[in-house]
Amino acid sequence: MRDFKKLAEQYQRELLENVVPFWLNNSQDKEFGGYFTSLDREGKVFDTDKFIWLQGREVWLFSMLYNQLEKKQEWLDAAIHGAEFLKKYGHDGNLNWYFSLTREGKALVEPYNIFSYVFACMAFGQLSKATGNQEYADIALKTFDIIMSKKNTPKGRWDKGFPGTRDLKNFALPMILCNLALEIEHLLDADFLKETMETCIHEVMDVFYLPDLDLVVENLNVDGSLSDTFDGRLLNPGHAIEAMWFIMDLGTRLKRPELITKANDITIRMLEYSWDKQYGGIFYFMDRLGLPLQQLEWDQKLWWVHIETLISLLKGYELTGSAKSLEWFEKVHQYTWAHFKDTKYPEWFGYLNRQGEVLLPLKGGKWKGCFHVPRGMFQCWQSLEAISKKQ
Questions:
Q1: CA 85 vs CA 55, 193, 262, 281: distances in Å
Q2: pLDDT of 1 higher than 70
Q3: pTM for this entry
């Protein structure tokens, strides 16, 4: 039997001695506020643009650590440092959150991306819990209202699709709302929260998960039918598997063990389907009919996909005792630590080629910031500790 206590310590050490200090020491822009996320292998800044969703994620991460782990002043200070920059420059004055800013805080890209809103909401929600600051709570709630109002047309006037020809709905938003609802639970009315959770569970488990295929698809026609197009055939295994641990959290919160079991089964199915039998690791994108993809990076191995998978497998094992989950965890754990962890410098590589070799040595950029690695280390550590106590 695995020594879960020792494993828990491995994830704890990685989080507290390696990953968190990397972001704390290298990412704070002491001159203009906010964070640098474009950091090279050693942690040096290679680009100063600031991406709103990554700013929000980092505020959230330091607030979460402060709330759930230890009341460390430097964590709270780091979170407030980012939040004040976001509050001042991140939106148009009506909480429409831009996509990116210059280093000084001038808007670069319009508010077309719903995930700028989602992570601003998560950031201010978690920080309001840490500080008791009503202004932060109001920003989170107002942003949440805007997200809910944009739910059916997330891109609004920035949608490039011609209306009425091929209207597809995307998995990403209901998936992230599963997590967001629990994140700002302390700010929401109980009935509204329950209704939101039920809607998200329904969308993820009854709409985008298709029992006939036994797969979670990324896009569907608005009537819920399959679309035989590039977008309609697309699978994003990492998304599907990450959503399953959100569902397990909701299943735990709502005391619905059948939901947890189903989410665990889907995790294993998606993993069996997307594991690269030749080189190991999980494919980034797949086509459900095995046809060529338009995403040229389809066969890359990405950090977040593997880390989110570790969380889902551990939660699955912790909550259901599934031997398959543990077996897969061993396999994904070995691959992830062998390929993504940089043994020379802190933090983890993000992008590998299909063979598992480092493709880009960066530690942060436009898409990778202070989020999946630290959150993953924290979640895995907590699950491993719970499993170890049960033993």
A1: 9, 29, 41, 38
A2: no
A3: 0.97
